[in-house]
Each structure stands twice: as C-alpha cells, then as structure tokens.
Amino acid sequence: MKNHFYSVVRCLASLMLFGLFCQAYAEDNVSHSVLNIQVTGSGKPMILIPGLASSGEVWDSTVAHYAKDYQCIVITLAGFAGKPAVDTPLFSSAEKELSRYISDKKLDHPIIVGHSLGGFLAMQFAAQHPEQVGKVVIVDSLPALGATQMPSVTKEQLQGAAANMRDNMRQSDPAQALASRRMAVTSMVSKPADIERVMGWGAASDRNTVINAMYELMATDLRDDIAQIKAPTLVLGTWIAYQEYAPRSAIENTFKMQYQKLPGVKIAFADTARHFIMYDDPQWMFAQMDEFLK
C-alpha cells in the first residue's frame, strides 16, 4: 500500500509536467526579470510564492485575509501564467533576486509563504539565507519530491530520473498533454471554477520554463539542507486525494520523514482539502497560519 502511494505521488508529478504547460522583480505592473511582484497592504512583510505554472492570483483570498495587518508581497515567477519567460535558470535566479529585493526594500525578516513548487523555493531560500527570513509556511510541498518512492535514492539517481522525465515531456503529444493536464488539475483542486482557473494558468505558461522547473524540482534533494533553516516553520499537508491508495497515517509519515532534519517544524494535515488548500479549505489554512504567526 505504501509503495502504491509513492507511485501515485510520482505519477502526479509527471502529470503536472505533462499538463501544466503550453504556450526583475516587478512592481506597479512593470516586469524586469524573474520575479513579478504585486504589493498590497501594510505592516510586517509577508512574501507569497505560488506553485508550478500558477499565478500569484492563487493567493487572492490569502491577501484579503492578511492585508490589514501585513504587507503582502505576491510573486508570479517568470514564464508562469502569462508572464514573460527568461533565459536564466529559474530557481537560482529567483533566489538571488528575492534576496536582493529583501535587502533593497529593507524588509525586516519577512514571512515566506510558498505553495507546492513555491514551497520548495521558500524552504530553499530559508536554508540559503537564514538571516533574511522571519517565519516560513510551506503549503503541500516536500523537500525531495523525487525521493518519495525511494528515500535512499542518490543525487545521481534523482538527476537521471528527472532528466528522463524532462526528455519524455519535451516529446509529449499535445493531445495527450491536454488530457493529462485536466486529470492532474482535477486531482489537485475540487471546485469546477477553480479547476478552470488553474487550467488557464497552465495554458498561458511557457512550456520550456515549466519543463525545466519541474526538472529542478524532481532532481533536487533538500532533506539535508533544511537543517540550515533557522526560522520557525509550519508545513501544511493534504491526503484526501490519495485516500484510495494509502491511509492518512502513511502520508503523514512521508512528510515526517522528509522534514525530520528541520528543527522544530510543525506539520498539520487538512482533512477536507486537496493540493490547492487555499481554494478547497481556506478557513482551515488561515486558522493554522493565524495560530502560527501569533
């Protein structure tokens, strides 16, 4: 049963890569490079990073909840959801630009919130720049997505498997990609309107950017690196999308194993939400975040 769950996770990762593609920093709607930024509200800074091929609009309800007390700095990454693509490596460029943005704006230990791929970037940034981060909130993401089936996988094996996936995705048939996209998105969010919104972002995303980003996500293992994170960290996970394959306890155990080197991490699981928790159960997410941020 456990191995079946791991296979499902890897299958979903592959479907994300098949389907969520098709086609710096910025303020006041002016794009410069990797980070496209919209700022709302005032107070303690909160940086929000969306997932693969997603728009910063995924955080709209989160901004509405927090903008009264926080300066919400919402990012859309280059090449995602209609934003122009760039030639530089996405992950390393985003890390450098975010560090520079925090310094330039003199942000005092901002809260970093990331969903999915954005959660991966958030933990990577917090490990590389612990002095710049206040608290971290990870929404349904793992330090080593490619290692869910084989926890003892080597760096070379991860990179080889990710390279094979990347090459296969580049050769994928458009009709198959569209069908896979809808299957993947339907497994990640519940409401029809939200499914169509996420589908639209994927359709507007740059194909090569998404393929390369997914390669980096699947090829990178942060399980040791997260020991460098000094910020208090909250991880929000989901399980109902996989309930026919594995019990909640098995999925929870996967999260606990992957985050075991992160000091003091708090992990909570939603019982009613799929991958896009901010759409499926925003009130539960806000309750967890409110308690953590107090």
From TrEMBL:
Q: Give the transmembrane ranges.
A: none
SUPFAM superfamilies for this protein = alpha/beta-Hydrolases
The residue ranges of the AB hydrolase-1 domain are 47-287
Q: Please tell me whether the keyword Hydrolase is annotated for this protein.
A: yes
Q: Show which residues constitute the signal peptide.
A: 1-26
Alphabetically sorted, this entry's keywords are: Hydrolase, Signal
Family annotation (InterPro entries) = AB_hydrolase_1 (IPR000073), AB_hydrolase_fold (IPR029058), AB_hydrolase_sf (IPR050266)
Q: Give the matching Pfam families.
A: Abhydrolase_6
Q: Does the keyword Signal apply?
A: yes
Molecular-function annotations in GO: hydrolase activity
Note the Gene3D superfamilies from the entry: alpha/beta hydrolase (3.40.50.1820)
Checking PANTHER family in the record gives:
MONOACYLGLYCEROL LIPASE
The protein in question is named Alpha/beta hydrolase family
Q: Which organism is it from?
A: Solimicrobium silvestre
